[in-house]
DNA sequence: ACACCGATGACAGTGACTGTCATCGCGTAG
DNA sequence: CTACGCGATGACAGTCACTGTCATCGGTGT
């Protein structure tokens, strides 16, 4: 694979997260990341489209997990119930990754550009979920709203889990958040 | 106010929207926008923090309209009902601006960076709405979810309105979108 | 007329990102 | 074993977004 040490991408990712944590995102140059990874700036941009993307390498896998879970939900389940079981399934994606998620989240929340990137990844995820729902025969508008709402529930639950001590599983927080949605939408 | 012609900000905004529409966002340089507005690149960046921000000058006023409307909702209204009346009130913000909104939306949707900026503006709006709900005594989690859901409803309705011919008022689309939310959350 | 001040211009500088071409190291055909 | 092919990397120049700094303009109040 690589010319010298293997796993260039992984080294860049580790170096970036470390530097972003230590000195902040803006204060870190692409050249510094590359240097710590034993590569050049040019190679950094061959692996990642920009400085932010290095923190979102896992987004594609997460989207896949979401779509797979939603696709596998029982055909008879109502959209919101399919979404509920999807959240349940996806929670395992983050098992054993609480510490990593915490550090990454801290870096992202500390910088506006990174928050922007996070939001568009979630929007892409929402869009993929809506498409999957449509494939299940759900009406366009209902699919879009169910997906948006599902992501909203995920966000709220995920943020609380990250702030927690990592002992309670993510699934707990997602269930809690979903329960609150029902309260909200029914008019309290 | 200005040293030469007045309304430098407005001229920059118009020039930017025109150029972004004509040749695309990425193909437009800040210097070109400034030149068309009869100013220099440096002055462009004095008025707008970056190339994207020039398209989002109205975001602050919109957020204000949202917050004011939500603040003015009857104290007795349930969160989701207060949100409904807020959407109703905010719809007038876009009256007579369908053509402008359409052109702006086309530019934004054609570029990923601009979509990112749009999303973070909406997130900021959601956050402001949640804070306003909390001020009404709504529990944190319910406030956050109601705000997120309210924005989701707004997005869906707004996008349909923009794609429409401009004859039907935005409020119609927002009501329609809100109606669908009820269907979704109740389990279809 | 004069002093003051906010908005603008001029200019240099940093860093993100790109295009291009040479080079390296490994697998493979011969 | 050797020559060749090819993907990954390095080297280097270039564009452009964005910033810091200082001079200058034009209106305002005295």
Short synopsis of the structure:
Chain A contains 9 helices and no strands. By secondary structure, chain A is mainly α. In chain A, helix 1 crosses helix 2 (30-36), helix 5 (79-90) runs parallel beside helix 8 and helix 7 packs across helix 8.
Question: Could you state the oligomeric state of the chains shown?
Answer: homodimer
**Largest interface (CB < 8 Å):** A-B, 32 and 32 residues
Q: Provide the CATH topology of the largest domain in chain A.
A: Tetracycline Repressor, domain 2
Taken together, the total number of domains of chain A comes to 2
Radius of gyration of chain A: 18 Å
- Decide which structural class fits the backbone of chain A: mainly alpha
Distance between the termini of chain A: 57 Å
Order of helices and strands of chain A: HHHHHHHHH
Beta content of chain A: under 5%
Output the CATH class name of the largest domain in chain A.
Answer: Mainly Alpha
Q: Would you tell me the overall average pLDDT of chain A? A: 94
Please tell me the CATH architecture of the largest domain in chain A by its name.
Orthogonal Bundle
**Uncertain runs of chain A with pLDDT below 50, 5 residues or more?**
none
CATH superfamily of the largest domain in chain A: Tetracycline Repressor, domain 2
Helix content of chain A: over 70%
Largest sheet data of chain A: none
Query: What is the number of strand segments of chain A?
Result: 0
Put simply, the count of helices of chain A is 9
Gross morphology of chain A is elongated
């Amino acid at each position: 694979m690589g010319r010298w040490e293997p796993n260039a991408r992984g080294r860049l990712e580790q170096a970036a997260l470390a530097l972003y944590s230590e000195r902040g995102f803006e204060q870190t140059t692409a050249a510094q990341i590359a240097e710590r990874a034993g590569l050049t700036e040019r190679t950094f941009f061959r692996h990642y489209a920009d400085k932010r993307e290095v923190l979102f390498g896992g987004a594609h896998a997460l989207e896949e997990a979401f779509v797979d879970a939603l696709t596998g939900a029982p055909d008879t389940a109502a959209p919101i119930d399919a979404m509920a079981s999807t959240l349940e399934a996806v929670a395992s994606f983050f098992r054993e990754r609480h510490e990593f998620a915490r550090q990454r989240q801290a870096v992202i929340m500390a910088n506006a550009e990174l928050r922007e990137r996070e939001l568009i990844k979630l929007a892409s995820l929402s869009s993929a979920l809506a498409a999957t729902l449509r494939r299940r025969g759900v009406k366009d508008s209902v699919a879009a709203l169910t997906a948006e709402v599902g992501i909203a529930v995920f966000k709220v639950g995920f943020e609380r889990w990250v702030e927690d001590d990592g002992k309670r599983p993510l699934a707990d927080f997602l269930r809690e958040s979903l329960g609150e949605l029902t309260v909200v939408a029914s008019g309290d």
